[in-house]
């Protein structure tokens, strides 16, 4: 089992990292490999909608998106973690994920996704909803915990005082590990679900 973790906070040792590290404790205990990518201080450009990735198989903006894509293809799960800005994930992560998901041609079906937010006070649930949409459109089961996955802390390190938030991260990690293992067993016995040929229906038509 392997999990890719994306930390989009510009503060590598901040409250978002505290949440991630609580999950890592469980991954280590359960013998799950993990790899953390800190992208918060990178100049992540948004998608150019050039369509080149559909023929190349990778993004022409050659940055850490392509680096993560190689590891994501081999991984069983993906954790995306963001500080909350204006009740949303930060711009770097949204641009990163839009390009990662559109530019990767490999099948993401049954890779497990988990999202977490870190906020001083509010905006965690809207961030949680925003990030989970990347998984939902890709056939990726979404790992849940005991609440909507988030942790509270304003100043750096304050998330260590959010005992419920820390417990939520451990619960999320344990549930994610179980789900990945269960899917691995299911794939071995039954294979992946059969897919129909995709139907795309446009809302505006010109007859």
What report would you give on this structure?
The chain is 41% helix and 16% strand. It has 207 residues and is of the alpha/beta class. The protein has a single domain, classed as Rossmann fold. Strands 1, 2, 3, 4, 5 and 6 form a six-stranded mixed sheet that branches. Helix 1 packs across helix 6 and helix 3 packs across helix 4 (91-103). The longest helix has 28 residues, at 163-190. The protein is globular, with a radius of gyration of 17 Å. The mean pLDDT is 96.
Distance between the termini: 50 Å
Total number of helices: 6
CATH superfamily: Flavodoxin domain
Order of secondary-structure elements: EHEHHEEHEHEH
Poorly predicted runs are: none
When the domains are counted, the total is: 1
Task: Provide mean pLDDT, rounded.
Answer: 96
Shape: globular
Q: What is the percent of helical residues?
A: 40-55%
Protein traits:
alpha/beta; six-stranded mixed β-sheet; 16% strand; Rossmann fold
What is the secondary structure topology, with strand pairs?
Blueprint: E1 2-7, H1 15-29, E2 33-38, H2 53-56, H3 64-74, E3 77-85, E4 88-89, H4 91-103, E5 112-119, H5 124-136, E6 150-152, H6 163-190
Parallel strand pairs: 1-2, 1-3, 3-5, 5-6
Antiparallel strand pairs: 3-4
Summarize the structure.
By secondary structure, the chain is of the alpha/beta class. The chain has helices at residues 15-29, 53-56, 64-74, 91-103, 124-136, 163-190; strands at residues 2-7, 33-38, 77-85, 88-89, 112-119, 150-152.
């Amino acid at each position: 089992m392997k999990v890719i973790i994306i930390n989009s906070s510009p503060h590598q040792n901040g409250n978002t990292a505290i949440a991630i590290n609580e999950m890592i404790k469980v991954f280590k205990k359960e013998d799950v490999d993990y790899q953390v990518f800190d992208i918060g201080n990178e100049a992540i450009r948004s998608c150019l909608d050039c369509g080149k990735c559909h023929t190349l198989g990778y993004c022409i903006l050659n940055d850490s998106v392509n680096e993560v894509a190689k590891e994501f293809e081999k991984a069983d799960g993906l954790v995306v973690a963001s500080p909350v800005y204006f009740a949303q994930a930060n711009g770097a992560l949204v641009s990163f994920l839009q390009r990662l998901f559109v530019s990767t041609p490999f099948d993401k079906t049954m890779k497990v996704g988990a999202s977490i937010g870190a906020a001083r006070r509010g905006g965690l649930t809207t961030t949680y909803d925003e990030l989970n949409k990347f998984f939902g459109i890709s056939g990726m089961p979404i790992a849940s915990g005991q609440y909507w996955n988030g942790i509270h802390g304003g100043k750096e390190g304050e998330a260590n005082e959010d005992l419920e938030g820390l417990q939520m991260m451990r619960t999320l990690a344990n549930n994610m590990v179980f789900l990945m293992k269960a899917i691995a067993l299911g794939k071995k016995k039954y294979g992946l679900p059969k897919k129909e040929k995709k139907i795309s229906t446009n809302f505006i038509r010109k007859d």
